[in-house]
Design brief:
about 50% helix; alpha/beta; four-stranded mixed beta sheet
Length: about 250
C-alpha cells in the first residue's frame, strides 16, 4: 500500500529517514472509524517496505492523540457478529504488525506531555480491556497499577504515567514534538541493525504474552455483544455516568 492511499493518516518525511505519521480526524478527536482501523493494520507493513524510512513518530492532529473507537463503529459492531469478527482480526493485526516491525516507532519509546490525560476506557464502555493493554501494561507499570487502571478506567496524567513507568518520558507541552524528533533522529542516525534487532529481541516479551492478548481480544469481542456496551456507548454520547444492566 502506498502512502498516498491512506485517507485518515497523514505523512511528513523529515531528515534522516524519520517519518511523521499523524492520525488525521481532528473533528472527532481522531476517533477510529472503520477505514482508520483498517489503515492502522497496514501502516506498519508500508513502513517495513519503505527502504528510506528508518524511524516513525506517531501523533494526532488537533487537540487529542485519539479518542479511541468511533461510537458509530462501536454500535455497529454490537449488532453484527460478522462485522465484529472482521474488527477482531484487524485489532490483532494492528498489534502484531507493529510488534513485527523492526524499525523503531516513537511509541516504542513513548513521550507524553505533562498536561496530557489519557485512559484505557474499555470497562467504562462495558467491554473487556483487550487490544494491547493486557500484555503491555503489566510489563510497563506492574500488575498492581495495571489492574487498578484497566479495571477502573481512571484517567492518568503525563507526570503520573512517567512516574509509574507507563511511558518513557514526560515533557512540557512545548517540548513534546521537538523531544520526539530528537529521539527519532538519534535512532535514525544510530547503528540500524543493532537498534532494530534490539527491538526485535525486546518484543519477544510481547510475543510470549501472545496467548494473553489473544484471549483478552476474544473476550473483548464477546462483551461487544452484551447489552452493557449499548448502555456504555449511550452514556458516552450523553456525557453521563453509565447505568450498566449487569450492575442493576
Amino acid at each position: 500500500m502506498d502512502y498516498r492511499d491512506y485517507q485518515h493518516l497523514a505523512f511528513e518525511r523529515r531528515p534522516n529517514g524519520v517519518v511523521l505519521i499523524t492520525i488525521n480526524r481532528p473533528e472527532v478527536l481522531n476517533a477510529t472509524n472503520d477505514r482508520l482501523h483498517w489503515e492502522l493494520t497496514q501502516i506498519w507493513l508500508t513502513l517495513d517496505a519503505d527502504e528510506s524510512a528508518r524511524v516513525a513518530v506517531v501523533t494526532g492532529a488537533g487537540r487529542a492523540f485519539s479518542a479511541g473507537g468511533d461510537l458509530t463503529m462501536v454500535e455497529a459492531n454490537s449488532r453484527d457478529p460478522k462485522r465484529l469478527a472482521r474488527t477482531m482480526r484487524e485489532a490483532s493485526d494492528i498489534v502484531y504488525n507493529m510488534i513485527n516491525l523492526e524499525k523503531p516507532v516513537i511509541s516504542d519509546i513513548s513521550i507524553i506531555s505533562e498536561t496530557a490525560r489519557f485512559t484505557d476506557g474499555h470497562t467504562r464502555l462495558g467491554v473487556v480491556a483487550g487490544d494491547h493493554a493486557a500484555i503491555v501494561w503489566p510489563l510497563l507499570c506492574g500488575m498492581a497499577k495495571a489492574k487498578y487502571y484497566l479495571l477502573t478506567s481512571d484517567f492518568i496524567d503525563g507526570k503520573e504515567a512517567e512516574r509509574i513507568g507507563l511511558v518513557s518520558l514526560c515533557v512540557p507541552p512545548a517540548d513534546l514534538l521537538p523531544r520526539a524528533f530528537a529521539v527519532a533522529d538519534n535512532l535514525a542516525t544510530g547503528a540500524q541493525q543493532a537498534i532494530r534487532w534490539t527491538k526485535r529481541s525486546l518484543n519477544n516479551w510481547l510475543r510470549m504474552a501472545g496467548p494473553i492478548f489473544d484471549q483478552s481480544l476474544a473476550l473483548e469481542m464477546l462483551t461487544f455483544m452484551d447489552e452493557d456496551v449499548r448502555e456504555g456507548a449511550a452514556a458516552i454520547r450523553e456525557k453521563r455516568a453509565p447505568r450498566f444492566p449487569s450492575a442493576r
